[in-house]
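Hey, I'm writing a tutorial for new members on how sequence and structure tokens pair up, and I'd like a real worked example in the thread rather than a made-up one. If someone can provide the structure for the chain below, I'll link this post from the tutorial.
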Amino acid sequence: MRLRRLLPDQAEVSIEEAVAGLGWGDRAPADRPFVAVNMVSSADGKATLAGRTAPMSAAADRALFHQLRTQADGILVGAGTVRIERYGRVTKTPELQAERERAGVRPEALAVIVSRSGLLPDDLPLLVDTPEAVRVVPNPAEALRELREEGIRSLLCEGGPTLNSTLFEAKLVDELFLTVAPVVGGSGETLTIVEGGPLHEPTDLELLTAHVADGHLFLRYSVS
């Protein structure tokens, strides 16, 4: 698949340029934090709309992920993703804390976990390392206003698929970072882009930047 042919001239921007000037907090609505979703699809038809995917290990993907985590006050994630990926401390090093402070966000990122039951493994590294920086909420739409009132102006959503879909359906997404990977390993042979719950109304997206590296295509969209 020659994805490069489908891209505008800005496809050659660097990772730093692709995420430059995010300023999410400055653009936060009055009643909720600015919400950016980071998700992955794949050129072989597998995607994160159903089931789980194996993490990618490309250097460009890791660089983008680092840049995004540096810019958000908090990380929004589903309980299933937290359990499967064994989430640990979000702000892992003093260097990352310093980067976050320079970006004008909280030095320690708040982990907001969406869980209807409110039950998480007691030995989850995230709860062991920084329990004071973890918030468990049953419904993201209802929790966003409270988080905004507490000073959380930006959230980076790291999935999973049910949470992503819920946010888009409720029109609570401001930006989308979509990685199109050559192949993403899934948890089952039937993991395809057409599998999962009912499809919702299409979302209007405006392409802001595009970046090609390590065989991956990184797209940044504004959501309207």
